[in-house]
Prior knowledge:
Number of domains: 2
CATH superfamily of the largest domain: Glycosidases
Largest sheet: 8 strands, parallel, barrel
Number of strands: 19
Structural class: alpha/beta
CATH class of the largest domain: Alpha Beta
Low-confidence stretches: 1-29, 98-113
Radius of gyration: 32 Å
CATH topology of the largest domain: TIM Barrel
Strand order of the largest sheet: 11-12-14-15-16-17-18-19
Strand content: 15-25%
Mean pLDDT: 89
Distance between the termini: 120 Å
Amino acid sequence: MRRLLLTVLVLAALLLAGCTADPAPPRPTEDAARFATSRATAVVDAPGAPDRAVAASRALFASSPGVVLAPATDGAAQRRAAAEAERLHVPMLLVPGGAGTGSSAAPRPSASSSDPAAAVLREVRRLGATWAAGFGARLPGIAARRAGAVPPLPASTGSMLAIATRASADTAALASARAAGARVVPASSSDLNADAKVVAALADAEDARAVLVGSAFGARDDLAWSVTAARSGWTYADGTQRAWGGSSLHIALYGTPGDPVLGALGQQGGPATISRVRALAAQYAPLTRRTVSPMLEVIATVASGGPTGNGDYSGEIDPERLEPFVDASLAAHVPVILDLQPGRSDFLTQAKEYASLLEKPGVGLALDPEWRLGPKQKPLVQIGRVSAAEVNRTSAWLADLVEAKGLPPKPFVLHEFRLTMLQDRQRIVVDRPQLDTLIHVDGQGSQPDKQATWRAVRAGAPKVGWGWKNFLRTDHPVLTPAQTIQQVHPTPDLITYQ
């Protein structure tokens, strides 16, 4: 009997233990936000800050249990709300209405798809958010949470860069970006390739998703290429990927390797050419605040006084012969421009022959219309000319090559010392973002004549970079580096020696 009673007591204890041990773990008070998984570049470029905030939320968050709200017109409230959104790792949205109006800050959204408040409410519903921490703003039907009362939600483990043209105008969009784990990089303009800090950030974080924030990006249709180009990591000495119009001054030797008659570039061997152009650039460095760097302009097709093998009065150097020289120059961080003197051929036909070299970062293209001749003309007898249409066909082909290969922008140089050389100059397309167009003024002789040519060519010209040439044999006198900087105004972007 005693054994039976003991058994009953043991069973009862076990049953009681089974009912009270291992209680169910407490349910989390909040669900985590889910961050967008797309790797594609996102562009947040709506005209208004409230719409950009909504667009940033859509680009960065797949869902979120809550949001942070602030009035669209209250900068102080937005700054406080931004800190809370970043703490919580949830999106921040802007609600139309005045500052400091409490629960009445948000009017009831209308059905209009263009109503900013309606857009905010649609985004809240897309996110699946059930609460909002408001800083002077609220939305109907969304539970209000006191700021600071919600514990932080899990952060994103992804990698993102948010590049912003006007950070002060996009407090909400950038707060959402930081909340999603992005590093914010200020940009000086919508031209990413012209900003050394942006190029460096994209190159250093090659696998990071890029989110571009700012209304200025709305005018650009080349942003995917621009990001890819920046990520290549190739830059000029100033850290940008733009040759002209910025903080660089390029000093170049002109000619053909191994041919001393055609210019200073060919008066010595390859390594000595690199040393010579570097020494020349060093003479300019103390004379300007710009970053001075060397460059080479190589005549790849040489105009001929007599018929050539294909009858075009132009000797085309085999690209494979030029490639070792080009590669050595690029390895020494000296960019190269290939110069075309097509004779009776045309620029586009010849440019395509050098596609293998033009596919290399750091190799640009120059068109020399002096040597673009008609069917019955000969070099050194007539001065050639080129139509705007032919220039545009050539630049379009080169721009397409740059974009297709994800290359950094390329220098595109047009030589001119007579206004007849570039026909219909105002019709020449100079704003292709994949190219940096420059007009190179090639006047020679006395300095008064050269200055007159400089002024005449520049008058009424499109907005481009500018180049000046010092002829070592035919200028009277040849300007020293100090004289070139002092006497040539504005300071050229490219100064070439022939």
